[in-house]
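User
Please review the sequence:
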Amino acid sequence: MSEKTTHDKLPIRMLHDRVLVKSDLPEGERRSGGGILIPATAAVGKRLAWAEVVAVGQNVRGVEPGDRVLYDPEDRAEVEVRGATYVLMRERDLHAVAAERLEGAEDSTGLYL
């Protein structure tokens, strides 16, 4: 697994079991699948979010940079690097992994649950 990231050419080396992700959470208003506009102030129940893995520590075994992961956006630590906001978490805080490299695996749904 790679310890450095090429995302935005950031010279970051994650330590231990840490994972750095770029969140897919939309900021402000968003649209539902049916096209309904949902304002930023609308209360939404507990919902998990998808993010792209940007960097991983040397003890991370289940994900690689470029994978998409499912995590709880309420349990997160944000960090700003060169004007971009990232989320820092432990590997054990990830709920699922979706990656193209998992598609050919026998009895695989494409997600680790």
